[in-house]
Amino acid sequence: MRLRTSTFLIVAGAFAFIAVVFLDGLSRDLLASAEAARTPPWQRAKKAAVASEAPNRRGSSDAPSEAGPVSIDVPLTPTPTPLPTPQSDVGGRSVPPSDLKPWPEDRAADSALCGTWQDEYRIVHGGPHADFATNGRKYSAFQCRAGEVCGGIADRILGMMTGFMFAIMTNRTFVLDLFIPGFPYTYHNVPPNGGDLVPALGTRGDWGSDYVMVDILHWASITKQFLMETDLNTHYPQRLVVWRGNRGAVIPMFSNPHHKAALQRTGLRPEVAWGCMFNFLMRPRPEVLLEHEKDTAALRDPTTFVIGMHIRAGDENIGKTPANATRLADGRTLDNWQSWLDCAFELEHSIAGGRPTRWYFLSDSLTLRQMVVNRYGNKTINMEVREPGHVTGNAADSENVAHNVTGYVGVAEHWLYGLCDAWVMGDSGYSKTGAARGMLPDRIFWGDRRRNCTVGNHATLDELGWWSGM
User: Fold this and answer.
1) Separation of alpha carbons 132 and 238, rounded Å
2) Which residues are CB-contacts of 448 (< 8 A; sequence separation ≥ 6)?
3) Which of 404, 315, 308 is CA-nearest to residue 362?
4) What are the residues facing 173 on neighbouring strands?
5) The sheet that has 240-245: what strands, in order across it?
6) Rounded distance, CA 224 to CA 210, Å?
């Protein structure tokens, strides 16, 4: 009897222990489920991305932490990957060229998106030009010559677009008066002055007195408001109007009552006009994109939703710290821009619709680029961290930048940035112009989280039109 009682107690104790373990596990599962339910989807995706990339970080301590800034101990050196052979080689599988994500410049040819003005412009303003003194045309020109201050890449593009917008509004031929050897763009549909193509304007001595110079370098001679309110045909009767500077007014000029009818006839819409015009005008030189075939293939993968991010750390950080530094030259780390990353994770659920998502991360800081690769690994498309270049304000200086690898990196990445499906950016002209090339205005979001990164909370036209005049 005593033996049976002991056996019973032992069995009962075992069952009690199993029950405690089971109930403890169940309670933990219930608590975890409740916690997951309270966690926004983008935060769950953020944790999952970091966890899935942990083996790729090779011991790096640059992992997300709620406790504050972290540092990098061991920088990631990505394993070199061979470039894809044909353009259609996406992620190791063959994709027919017709199925690849289209280039923005190809989409811009669609009159439903960009209006009907392009063919008419080619007919009226294209083709060889006779001597300026005898051809009778009216011109709008953007000028940047050696020794003149023109600004960086985005600055020059903004100035060009102002001159081109003026040309469309006033039925003029637009030309680029650029004497800069090695300039990293070719002129698509627009005749440049000089070079191998037929000169349009000749030298400044050929202009006579029938021209006017308009200085828009920091709005030196006119204001944006002036371009929004003035009858430009009456104010500028000269045959040649030469624009110089770094300010844009494409979006604000749609408000000009004297030219509203002319703009309506073109079919251009303010929300996509900047991208339509830039894609009509410019192409990067073929050699600019040579080192970016792998990134191009990933960006054009039709199965992947790509979020472009650009962080402008400032000139004081360009080339000042190596890739494996733990901080930028001014002391900041990636955690100072955590809101950019959080916005990207939120977009994966609010915009991407469950599609596989990757990032195309750009910055003027080599250190910041490496920090993102260290932390998120293969989630970033451009894992081969390249030194970004900056075209300086002086045209003569930029001749050297245009010929070296770092100068081409900035131009190539700016062009490829337009291939993304959504963008997280700050108040940088480089960010704005690169995103606007994509002509998806409802997918541009602010990295500073001035609003949530969800449908309907994109950057407004007024915000994009401020300062850069996009």
Assistant:
1) 13
2) 339, 426
3) 308
4) 139
5) 173-179, 139-145, 240-245, 211-216
6) 24
Beta-bridge partners for 94: 89
Q: Strand ranges (DSSP E) for 148-220? A: 173-179, 185-187, 211-216
Residue 172 three-state SS:
coil
Find, among 284, 233, 227, the residue nearest to 434 by Cα. 284
- Quick one: how many helices (H) and strands (E) in the chain? 19, 12
The tokens describing 136, both together, are 């009778």
- 5 three-state secondary structure: helix
Of 132, 235, 118, 237, residue with least CA distance to 175: 132
Pairing of strands 185-187, 139-145: unpaired
pLDDT value at residue 61: 33
CB-based contact 385:370 (threshold 8 Å): yes
C-alpha torsion sign, points 313, 319, 320, 324: positive
User: Torsion angle of alpha carbons 179, 181, 185, 190, nearest 10°?
Assistant: 30
Contact present, 329 and 316 (Cβ < 8 Å): yes
Give the length of the chain.
470
Q: What 8-state DSSP symbol labels residue 82? A: P
Q: Could you tell me if 367 and 317 are in contact, meaning their C-beta atoms sit under 8 angstroms apart?
A: yes
By the 10 Å C-beta count (0-12 exposed, 13-18 middle, 19+ buried), 258 is classed as middle
Alpha carbon 392 to its chain's center: 19
Q: What is the pLDDT of residues 35-82, one digit of tens each?
A: 555 555 545 555 555 555 444 443 333 333 333 332 222 222 233 333
Q: Determine the Cα–Cα distance for residues 463 and 425; give it in Å rounded to an integer.
A: 12
- Tell which phi-psi region holds residue 353, choosing left (phi > 0), alpha (psi between -120 and 50) or beta: left
Q: Which amino acid is at 455?
A: V
Beta strand 357-363 with 305-311 is parallel
Q: Which helix (H) or strand (E) element contains residue 307?
A: strand 305-311
Instruction: Please give the C-alpha separations between residue 259 and each of 40, 252, 274, 355, in angstroms, as whole numbers.
Output: 48, 12, 17, 43
Of 7-21, 240-254, 373-387, the least confident: 7-21
Tokens of 201: 């304007």
Per-residue pLDDT of 218-243, as tens digits, reads 777 788 889 999 999 999 999 899 99
